[in-house]
Design a protein that fits this description.
CATH class of the largest domain: Alpha Beta
Order of helices and strands: EHEEHHEHEHEHEHEHEHEEEEEEEEEHHE
CATH architecture of the largest domain: Alpha-Beta Barrel
Oligomer: single chain
Mean pLDDT: 97
Distance between the termini: 25 Å
Strand content: 15-25%
Bound molecules: pyridoxal-5'-phosphate
Number of strands: 19
């Protein structure tokens, strides 16, 4: 198979979860939306369930299918987008817990699935998902009477510890849930790092499981090796790739790798990004194509079989900086075409 090989270290992910969980007296769940940030929700979910995770979060009900199969009937799977018009059957069949975000979703849940588990999201200023103050006030008694599994909100600026929005949202969340005898959750990875005031009963790490910012001190869980499918020698003056953007200034040996922007190797990464053979850097040259990358391997002693894009020499966050984006986007862009190999767990 001529695709990138993505090696996912389950022990590193479990270790990161344990370290994040140990930062708080609250229970730690795990957020596995977008196929566990590209790493594979089924395998990662099974490993985390084995390690003790009892509450998982996905973005949409469809993501619950593979995860439910992997973790079995016991762990709770929350659906962050809530209960949409076409979600009822899946929620019932898979025993998912929708996080209701609006009066409409609340009615849908109570009409279609009365007595079944649900959670509530409150909007505390991010203005993205969740009940607004007045809408929440109108249904609070009814909701509390029905026994929500969780009341949660989400921080907009948790990766900036000094941002005044953090304290503002914390205060609003407390006001909206004061005195309620129900499990509460506010913190994702960034919120865990803000300290115990933000932890409540349950924390919801996602990116931190993968050792990327804002939890860059975590263990790197990924290696991405790209196979070399052809090599050639250029004489000085020859050009490489679309648009002839790169020209050889010396006799150059070029390797062509089997991955491109269709695999999440963002086109903006072109010139200025290296891939690695062990610890030797080999610069990407020319434009990144849809399925191919060209690399200058002149300085290597022998043609390599693979070159490493993500690994000990270059983290997900390093790539994110080069691409002027965030680790979340690098991870969730990892190609479904890569062959995923799991170690540990
Ligand atoms: C994505 C998400 C999380 C996890 O966030 P990280 O920053 O990846 O830890 C937690 N809660 C909600 C509501 C989310 O959307």
């Amino acid at each position: 198979m001529t695709t990138g090989i993505l090696t996912i270290d389950l022990d590193a992910i479990i270790g990161n979860w344990r370290k994040l969980a140990a930062m708080s007296r609250a229970e730690a769940g795990a957020v596995l939306k977008a196929d566990a940030y590209g790493t594979g929700a089924a395998r990662v979910g099974a490993a985390l369930a084995e390690a003790g995770v009892r509450k998982f979060f996905v973005a949409v009900a469809e993501e619950g299918v593979a995860l439910r199969e992997a973790v079995g009937p016991a762990p709770e799977i929350f659906v962050l987008s809530g209960h949409g018009t076409t979600d009822t059957a899946l929620i019932r069949q898979l025993n998912l817990t929708p996080v209701l975000n609006s009066p409409q979703q609340l009615r849908r849940q109570f009409d279609a699935l009365p007595g079944r588990p649900f959670a509530i999201q409150l909007d505390t200023g991010m203005n993205r998902l969740g009940f607004e103050w007045e809408d929440w006030a109108a249904v609070t008694d009814e909701v509390l009477g029905a026994g929500p599994r969780l009341i949660m909100s989400h921080l907009a600026c948790a990766d900036e510890p000094d941002h005044p929005m953090n304290a503002y949202q914390l205060d609003l969340f407390k006001q909206m849930t004061e005195g309620m005898r129900v499990s509460r959750s506010l913190a994702a990875t960034g919120g865990i790092l803000l300290g115990p005031d933000y932890h409540f009963d349950l924390v919801r790490p996602g990116i931190g499981l993968h050792g990327a910012a804002p939890y860059a001190q975590g263990a790197q869980a990924l290696q991405l090796d790209l196979p070399v499918i052809q090599t050639r020698d250029l004489i000085e003056g020859e050009v490489v790739g679309y648009g002839n953007t790169w020209q050889a200034r010396r006799p150059t040996r070029v390797a062509t790798l089997a991955a491109g922007y269709a695999d999440g190797v963002l086109r903006v990464l072109g010139a200025g990004t290296n891939v690695y053979s062990g610890d030797i850097a080999c610069p990407i040259i020319g434009r990144i194509s849809m399925d191919l990358i060209t690399v200058d391997i002149t300085d290597l002693d022998a043609d390599p079989e693979v070159l490493t894009l993500i690994g000990p020499q270059q983290s997900v966050d390093d790539l994110a900086v080069t691409a002027k984006t965030i680790g979340y986007e690098i991870l969730t862009s990892l190609s479904p075409r890569y062959s995923r190999q799991y170690i540990g767990g």
